[in-house]
Write a structure and sequence with these properties.
The complex is a heterodimer. By secondary structure, chain A is α+β, with helices and mostly antiparallel strands. Chain A is built from 4 helices and 8 strands; from the N terminus they run αββαββββαββα. Chain A is elongated. Among the domains of chain B are: about 140 residues, Ribosomal protein L4/L1 (Ribosomal Protein L4, Chain: A, 3-Layer(aba) Sandwich); about 50 residues, no CATH class. Chain B has an 8-stranded mixed beta sheet, sandwiched between helices. Chain B has a two-stranded antiparallel sheet with strand order 5-6. The chains are: A alpha+beta, B alpha/beta.
């Protein structure tokens, strides 16, 4: 008998615990529904949860009296079909300032829109040489790249057997430039140097690794 | 005596040389009021041309059939005087054709052709070649081995700078061939298509004309006029592409469209494009 009573009691307590659990779960679910409907509109603006103002779960908004009906727990069959909350009033006061003095610090952190021009200096520790103005009077021209470098490159192919120096971005008389670099390289190396001129592509390919010599030549011309 | 001389000169009606006004494009654009005042625009770009001189083009009008030159305009040589790279143009055209092409050609394999489940004759003893199915690719009416399977996408992405240079080289080629015209605006006096057709005919713009404006809404008259002319099309500046430029004989840009194209292309020619040059991923935004 006693055992039976004890059994009964334990059954009842078990039952109560179960009911309590169900109630808590249900209330949690209800809260979730309410929370979603409260914040859905604000989340449209805020986007990520990382941008929540003051770590507030309501995203800095409070519902007005007109939208209290949305608070009432109502189960929607679908997240997408639940209505958005209307009549939201801002909880925090703020004003919009255009171009405050602090904006300069923000601007400093923003990435460059385009690659900036080089600030003129007497000498550059990297060994970079600025282009000279008198180069523009020559019948040919070597235009600097967007990164202010001379467009002379080494192309290594066939596992290092073939080395070709490519001079790109040539403007003006490309054949005259070809003659000049040919005679320059011949004088410098005491040997004939083969070149190939692409008139439409505006580049010259020199057979062999002459990058440093040609860059020196370009610097001497002021490109 | 002198007054008589002056009045005599006045009576001669000597054509006065056009008043030429020079102003920077930074200044708000002024419209030339009379037919004898030309506006010459000297432009200040964010990236000045280094060696090649800026290209000069006439600003034309669209409100009369006869061409009137309203002014001179400068175009940046990096955008409008690029070398005519036919290979880059071709790559762009091929890309534009392929990017949206899905091949729906379809053949059935030996498994999909009806029948053929039974071995047609025994393996040995008949004197005939051994066969396991009458739908084998060797058979007439059999399946196709390695045939086309439908829904084959030909999508690929051209490198970013090939796309940019495709635009510059096509614009430059059009300008070099006198197939690029700059007009002040797209205001037409009527909405009749005959007017526009006659204008194109008279100015020898070739049958097909592509008109590009800065905005994506055009004045009513030109939209109504081009509506029934299949070979004269309007396009906003963000829709400009190599294929359409080549498809139409003449490219007509408004002044603002030419400047906008120039500004955007110059930006990409001088910007850090590592993000744009990265390999294209389907899931990227």
């Amino acid at each position: 008998m006693t055992a039976g009573v004890r059994h009964n009691v334990s059954f009842e307590t078990n039952n109560i615990v179960l009911i309590a659990l169900v109630a808590i779960l249900y209330s949690l679910f209800k809260m979730a529904t309410v929370w979603r409907s409260q914040c859905a509109f604000a989340r449209l603006f805020a986007g990520k949860t990382g941008q929540i103002l003051n770590n507030a779960t309501d995203l800095g908004t409070k519902l007005g009296p007109g939208s209290q009906s949305a608070i009432l727990a109502k189960k929607y069959s679908n997240y997408a079909h639940s209505p958005f909350v209307t009549k939201i009033k801002e909880q925090y006061d703020y004003e919009i300032v255009k171009n405050p003095p602090e904006w300069g610090y923000v601007q400093r952190l923003l990435p460059f829109d385009t690659i900036p021009a080089v600030t003129p200096k007497d000498s550059y520790p990297s060994g970079w040489v600025p282009p000279k103005e008198e180069a523009k009077t020559l019948p040919f021209f070597l235009c600097r790249t967007r990164n202010h470098e001379i467009p002379i490159y080494l192309q290594i192919t066939y596992r290092g057997i073939r080395k070709i120096t490519k001079i790109k971005r040539i403007e003006g008389d490309i054949w005259l430039l070809n003659d000049e670099i040919k005679s320059y390289l011949k004088e410098k190396n005491n040997r004939y140097v083969e070149t190939r001129v692409q008139e439409v592509g505006r580049f010259i390919e020199v057979k062999g690794d002459y990058v440093n010599q040609l860059v020196d030549w370009a610097h001497s011309k002021g490109f | 005596m002198t007054s008589a001389l002056i009045s005599a000169i006045r009576r001669l009606h000597i054509a006065v040389t056009p008043q030429i006004r020079v102003y920077s494009s930074n200044v708000a654009a002024t419209t030339s009021a009379g037919s004898n005042s030309l506006s010459i625009t000297k432009k200040e770009w964010a990236f000045q041309p280094q060696y090649t001189k800026p290209r000069e083009v006439w600003i034309e009008n669209l409100d009369t059939i006869e061409e009137q030159k309203l002014g001179l305009f400068e175009l940046h040589p990096s955008v409008y005087a690029a070398p005519p790279r036919l290979d880059i143009i071709n790559q762009n055209v091929v890309w534009q054709r392929k990017i949206r092409f899905v091949s729906w050609a379809h053949t059935k394999t030996r498994a999909e052709v009806r029948g053929g489940g039974k071995k047609p004759w025994p393996q040995k003893g008949t004197g005939r070649a051994r066969h396991g199915s009458i739908r084998s690719p060797l058979w007439r009416g059999g399946g196709i081995a390695h045939g086309p399977r439908s829904g084959k996408s030909h999508f690929f992405m051209l490198p970013f700078h090939v796309r940019i240079h495709g635009l510059t080289t096509t614009l430059s080629s059009k300008l070099a061939q006198d197939d690029l015209h700059i007009v002040k605006d797209l205001e037409l006096p009527t909405d009749e298509p005959e007017f526009l057709a006659e204008l194109v005919e008279k100015r020898n713009w070739g049958p097909s004309v592509l008109i590009v404006d800065d905005t994506d809404y055009a004045p009513r008259n030109i939209t109504a006029a081009t509506d029934s002319l299949a070979h004269i099309n309007i396009m906003p500046v963000y829709g400009l592409n190599v294929y359409s430029m080549l498809k139409h004989d003449t490219l007509v840009l408004t002044l603002s469209a030419a400047e906008k194209i120039e500004e955007r292309l110059l930006h990409w020619l001088h910007a850090d494009t590592r993000a744009q040059s990265r390999e294209y991923k389907v899931n990227q935004v």
